């Protein structure tokens, strides 16, 4: 059994996509080497929402995402996706890591990296069909990167890398998209492509959870916000979270006025 077949076997094809709550996090705690970075984190995300996870540096935002997805083992608590464990519905959940987490020196082409996103859809043969490769090209086109399809990974700029990682997630055709700081240090072309994808994603009734660092555009880009500062200290609309005393405690009075 190859790795792609293993993913296919763990996915529960009977999982309902009509759940009101797309993602639920309940009492989650996680960290590294016995140290707890984020503790007792709880929040829910409803189907079709675009939610920002914000917080100061070192507050546990990326750690929280990784624990939700089982990339690190939670110390306590749990996360549910479409009211199932992640491994049961991983076909429907795509994760876009930070670009720095990928070894871009690996001797491969862009099209092959994006094709990895089809792994959760493959049958027992573990082979991509012509239909799968068409989906790969559509995903690259959606992020204005079809011209990069045959380029070596090592030749990509920072913005191109982020678009390619987004294409790898889109080719999975997920219901839930989880992204770790996709707007950080990107060019205007990449930002435009990302916003277009997110708008289309939400128009289809799908859910996006995004770790976001720029407080100035949270109101314009997101429906709801989760503030993480070692734990979840506030949730709600951007206005409600920015007005919460926990926001000032996390970022200070100057950031509060700027937001």
Walk me through the structure.
- With 259 residues, the chain is α/β, with parallel strands linked by helices.
- The chain has one domain (3-108, 176-258): Rossmann fold (3-Layer(aba) Sandwich), CATH 3.40.50.
- Helices cover 33% and strands 23% of the residues.
- The protein is built from ten helices and nine strands.
- It has helices spanning 3-10, 61-68, 110-115, 130-142, 158-170, 188-203, 218-221, 238-242, 245-251, 253-258; strands spanning 21-32, 35-46, 50-54, 76-81, 93-96, 176-180, 207-211, 224-228, 232-236.
- The strands form two sheets. It has a six-stranded mixed sheet, with helices on both faces. Strands 2-1-4 form a three-stranded antiparallel sheet, covered by helices on one side.
- α4 crosses α5 and α5 (158-170) packs parallel to α6 (188-203).
- The model is unreliable at 1-10 (pLDDT under 50).
Give me the CATH fold name.
Rossmann fold
Number of strands: 9
> Can you tell me the residue ranges where pLDDT is under 50 for at least 5 consecutive residues?
1-10
Q: Based on the structure, what is the oligomeric state of the protein chains?
A: single chain
Question: What is the gyration radius calculated from CA atoms?
Answer: 18 Å
What's the SSE blueprint?
Blueprint: H1 3-10, E1 21-32, E2 35-46, E3 50-54, H2 61-68, E4 76-81, E5 93-96, H3 110-115, H4 130-142, H5 158-170, E6 176-180, H6 188-203, E7 207-211, H7 218-221, E8 224-228, E9 232-236, H8 238-242, H9 245-251, H10 253-258
Parallel strand pairs: 3-7, 3-8, 5-6, 6-7
Antiparallel strand pairs: 1-2, 1-4, 8-9
Helix pairs in contact: 4-5, 5-6
